[in-house]
TrEMBL record, chain B:
<keyword id="KW-0349">Heme</keyword>
<keyword id="KW-0408">Iron</keyword>
<keyword id="KW-0479">Metal-binding</keyword>
<feature type="transmembrane region" description="Helical">
    <location>
        <begin position="21"/>
        <end position="48"/>
    </location>
</feature>
<keyword id="KW-1133">Transmembrane helix</keyword>
<feature type="transmembrane region" description="Helical">
    <location>
        <begin position="110"/>
        <end position="130"/>
    </location>
</feature>
<dbReference type="InterPro" id="IPR039023">
    <property type="entry name" value="SdhC_prok"/>
</dbReference>
<dbReference type="InterPro" id="IPR034804">
    <property type="entry name" value="SQR/QFR_C/D"/>
</dbReference>
<keyword id="KW-0472">Membrane</keyword>
<dbReference type="GO" id="GO:0046872">
    <property type="term" value="F:metal ion binding"/>
</dbReference>
<dbReference type="GO" id="GO:0016020">
    <property type="term" value="C:membrane"/>
</dbReference>
<keyword id="KW-0812">Transmembrane</keyword>
<dbReference type="InterPro" id="IPR000701">
    <property type="entry name" value="SuccDH_FuR_B_TM-su"/>
</dbReference>
<feature type="transmembrane region" description="Helical">
    <location>
        <begin position="68"/>
        <end position="89"/>
    </location>
</feature>
<dbReference type="Pfam" id="PF01127">
    <property type="entry name" value="Sdh_cyt"/>
</dbReference>
<protein>
    <recommendedName>
        <fullName>Succinate dehydrogenase, cytochrome b556 subunit</fullName>
    </recommendedName>
</protein>
Amino acid sequence: MAATTETVRRVKVKPNYEMIAWKWMRYSAFALIPLVWIHAILQDVVVGVHAMDLGYVAERWASLFWRVFDALLLGFAFAHGVNGLRQVLNDFIHGEKGRKILNWSLFIFWLAIFLIGAIALIGGVNQQFPLE
Amino acid sequence: MSTLKTTLTGYAGYRGREGHWAFLLHRITGLGVVLFLTIHIVDIAFVYFQPALFLDALALYQTTLFGIGEIALIFCVFFHGVNGLRIAYFDMFKPGLWSIEMQRKTTRTTLIIAIILWLPAAVWMVRNILLHNYGIVLFGG
Ligand code: HEM
Ligand code: HEM
Ligand code: HEM
């Protein structure tokens, strides 16, 4: 058998949109571990949905720390998730036109939901509502 | 629609063992969590836009059916997270180690870690559902 030598050739590629998106999935992954795990364990296991009401959210958002935490969660998790959804749909949708429509639709979807979350996060619990 | 069929039969028919299962589980859990998160951002936003609807949504989350969904959600968050770290670590720091043997080993470890993280949370959530929805005290009442 002929001996072969293996050489690793490193190439520099000009970063394009898809590559930035690929890196984003990996960088955001490291930030998401503390953000998502702390949030989900705290809310769903330690506190639990049975102990929640409007006053609970008002109390949490009275703390700047948790508001900033939620803002990071909203920014990182949802962008990661929607980009992931784009990755999955790319397996089914080929062709330039289809991909273009897909990218724009998902971007608008992401922006709409993100804005809804961001406005609520800034506005806080509606005090007009009678809290019993 | 032939691409749809080709892709789906590829998902189902490919026999890549651990690598195949890890891919499918990572997809399903990721999609499950975005679906939840989309609904979740809207239901939390009700505290500002429509507080009465927030209370309705909360009542829904407290039902046993949703409680079971939440236990599944916690598993998704753990498995997807551990497996995602595994992928990101190999891709970014050790690309040379993407071998079949390594994949099989690390995938099994990933599953075990995810289950170990998930089990105590799941037990506690079952306890909460039994306590609040049925008045059954398992422990720590
Ligand atoms: C069923 C389990 C969960 C429960 C009970 C829950 C509960 C809550 C509550 C009560 C809030 C209001 C603010 C606060 O208290 O900090 C909130 C906000 C938020 N949660 Fe969750 N959470 C859960 C799972 C998750 C998961 C898995 C994610 C991410 C993937 C997530 C992402 C967010 C985000 C982004 C916000 C801010 C929403 C906004 O800006 O309007 N949550 N969650
Ligand atoms: C807990 C921390 C998380 C980590 C470490 C993580 C890591 C990753 C990584 C590395 C990928 C890329 C996989 C690849 O290209 O092969 C990915 C894909 C994905 N992630 Fe996450 N993620 C996390 C949380 C989330 C959350 C909260 C969501 C939903 C909102 C989500 C939804 C997705 C989706 C839909 C994909 C695409 C799956 C696919 O292409 O098969 N992930 N994740
Ligand atoms: C917090 C709420 C919930 C979460 C996070 C959740 C999450 C999930 C996930 C990740 C899967 C696996 C998806 C798949 O196999 O493709 C699943 C499957 C399923 N869920 Fe849920 N779920 C929730 C609530 C519910 C509710 C309320 C119902 C009943 C109306 C339900 C009924 C089902 C069914 C029937 C399946 C099996 C689907 C299949 O075999 O393809 N889930 N769920």
